[in-house]
Every structure is written in structure tokens, then in C-alpha cells.
Amino acid sequence: MIFRLILLIGLPIAAYYFVKSSSKRFKLSARQTRYLFFFVVALLVIGVLIVLGRLPVQFILAPVGVAATYLLRMLPMLLRLLPMWQMFKSRVSSSATKSAESVSKIKTHYLAMTLDHDSGAMDGEVVEGKFAGSQLSALALAQLIELAAELAIDLDSAQVFEAYMDRSHPDWREGGYQSSAQASLQDSAEMTAELAYEILGLQSNVSKDEITHAHRSLMQKMHPDRGGSDYLAKKINLAKDFLLAQE
Fold first, then answer.
1. What is the pLDDT of residues 114-167, one digit of tens each?
2. Is residue 122 within 8 Å of residue 115, measured between CB atoms?
3. Which of 19, 80, 109, 162 is most exposed by smallest CB count within 10 Å?
4. What is the pTM of this model?
5. Are 211 and 236 in contact (CB under 8 A)?
6. Domains parsed from the chain with CATH numbers
7. Plot region of 204 (φ>0 → left; ψ -120 to 50 → alpha; else → beta)
8. What is d(CA 203, CA 194) in angstroms, rounded to the nearest whole number?
9. CB contact set of 159 (below 8 Å; sequence gap of 6+)
10. Helix, strand, coil % (nearest 5) of the chain?
11. CB 235 within 8 Å of CB 201
């Protein structure tokens, strides 16, 4: 009697510590841990009832036998489906990676700009000057106009800033701002592989098709005829040409 009592008390405790250690080892979520705990307790209860003679051994052996027989019959089909499942997982993983990384980056002396490929939204951080550390989207229009005057001394910064302003504040030039981007489209920054990958939002060691696809996708949003700017279109074209030449 005492042995049974100790067994009934000790098994849930043992199950708790087993599940707790398994949860830490395999980094299970709270929900997964809860399900595992109930499953282990159920197995322990069934095992105790079988040992005590309250349940026949067939109670657990019969379902196990049926499951094993079913798996053996389905094994050839499962083996044929395995490559398809792996291909599906690979495509899902690849799609998630591309979605998470579909952001172009352009850095100048004063700005660190980002362009979201899906929405076409631009934003950036000021890295130098009076507004250093501020996001462009957080600045008022009067502050942005003041920033424009500060960026006029750096051609790259001025051009990418004007591209941002034309998209986010289409009427900002009505105050009489004179565009520095119209003066010259010559780049002050030399194109490098790292910079080209950042502009196109790609990882290194991609194929020519991926470079072309990224370029086409960006140009659909940033072409001057579609509300983009000559500066950004030129940067995107330079990045594509540079990477294709490297290939």
C-alpha cells in the first residue's frame, strides 16, 4: 500500500523534472512543454495501471502494433514524399530569407538610407551634423528643410536626401529650394562589391539571375518615370553593372 502511494506521488514529480530538463535542452515553448508533460504523465499512469494489473498489456501493445503496421505499409510512400517535403521546406526558407532581406541600403557621409523593396518606402538616419542620430521620418518639415541646407556641401548626401523628400514630401520644393542633384550626377563614392550588394539588397555570391531580378524589381519602384529619382536609378544601374561585370 505504501509502495503504491509512493509510486503515485513520485511518478508525477519525476515526470515534472524530466519534462523540465527536456524543455531546457530542446528549447521548447511553454505550450510544447505543457503538452509534453501531459503526454508523459499519461504514459506513466498507463504504465502503473498495467503493472498493478488494472489494465491488460494489450491496452498499450495493440495501438503500438497497429501504428507500427501502418507506418511499415506507408514507408515507401513516405520515402517518395521526403524529397518533395525537403524541397518545399527549402523554398519556404529561401522565400522567408529573401523577404526579410529585401531592403536596399545606401550610405553617404551624412545619411544611412534604407529602401524597402516590397512597399517602396524610404527612410534613413542622419549620421553627421546637427541632426545626427535622428530618423528622417521623425523630423518635421521645417527641420528637414534645415537639414537640406546642411547637406548641400556633400553631393551624394544631397541627392539621396532629395530622392527621399520627393517621395515623402512631394511639395517640399515650393519653398524655393534649389536642387543640387541637377548640378551633377557624378558619384563621389567608388562602387564596390559590398556597396553594390547593399544597394540591390542581396547577399554575396548570388547568381546573375538573382542580380537581374533584384535590379528589375527596384527599377520598377525607383525609375524616374515612376516617381523615383535619377540619382537612385543611376546607383541601382551601377550596382547591377558592377556585379555582372564581376561575374
1. 888 777 778 999 998 899 999 999 999 889 989 988 888 888 888 888 888 888
2. yes
3. 80
4. 0.47
5. no
6. 2-99 (no CATH), 102-246 (1.10.287.110)
7. beta
8. 9
9. 180, 181, 185, 229, 231
10. 65, 5, 25
11. no
